[in-house]
């Protein structure tokens, strides 16, 4: 396991280079009755608020929590630029500290479900959802394919941080159907969409610095050593600029459990 993950250590790179979810996500969620104006939405593990802001821009009333106050400070600055207001709270997704039960139409978790204790998080989400409310788990992941930029970058991360274990993914998470099903969530559906994302060399380096395997877990001198090696690798093998980085947008949606009184 990665030790002492702290995304607060990389708050500046996180805010600058982790652009978050593409707006097309809102189009894909609309048929599920998610992201509709005036809905009450809680975004757990919000980071710098990239998913929360998309909902706020749709006219939703959005609250969000994250354990890293440094990320929430960046989120508030980005909200000012976007012209939206979100109610942020420092807290854990398994125990939010929010007192009122059954207050949200949607609880969303973007790019973060793997950090949670799934059973405890599901119980807290059920407590907070209105009857018939929706849970959304969504990811927007880079795709390592044989010999591509992402695969080479992941190889370099492992050279500098052998404890990192999050590479080699496909951007699809079938195990989370079981998490939600075991907790009683109903009518589970998912969708997936591949798309490229353009990054300059500097932006891709910043994006990788802002990941769990680099600035969130390594010492500053180790981060610098990695970043220098990353720059050299990009210049040697991938000189084109911008870089077109393949990604997958994936989402899992479910309805709140039915419980007898």
Automatic annotation (TrEMBL):
Ranges where the Methyltransferase type domain occurs: 42-137
GO biological process: methylation
Superkingdom in the source lineage: Bacteria
Keyword Acetylation: no
InterPro entries documented for this protein: Diverse_substrate_MTase, Methyltransf_11, SAM-dependent_MTases_sf
Pfam families: Methyltransf_11 (PF08241)
Record GO terms (molecular function): S-adenosylmethionine-dependent methyltransferase activity
Keywords of this entry: Methyltransferase, Transferase
PANTHER family xrefs: METHYLTRANSF_11 DOMAIN-CONTAINING PROTEIN, METHYLTRANSFERASE TYPE 11 DOMAIN-CONTAINING PROTEIN
Family per similarity comment: Belongs to the methyltransferase superfamily.
Protein name: Methyltransferase family protein
Organism: Aestuariispira insulae
Lineage, broadest ranks: Bacteria, Pseudomonadati, Pseudomonadota, Alphaproteobacteria, Rhodospirillales
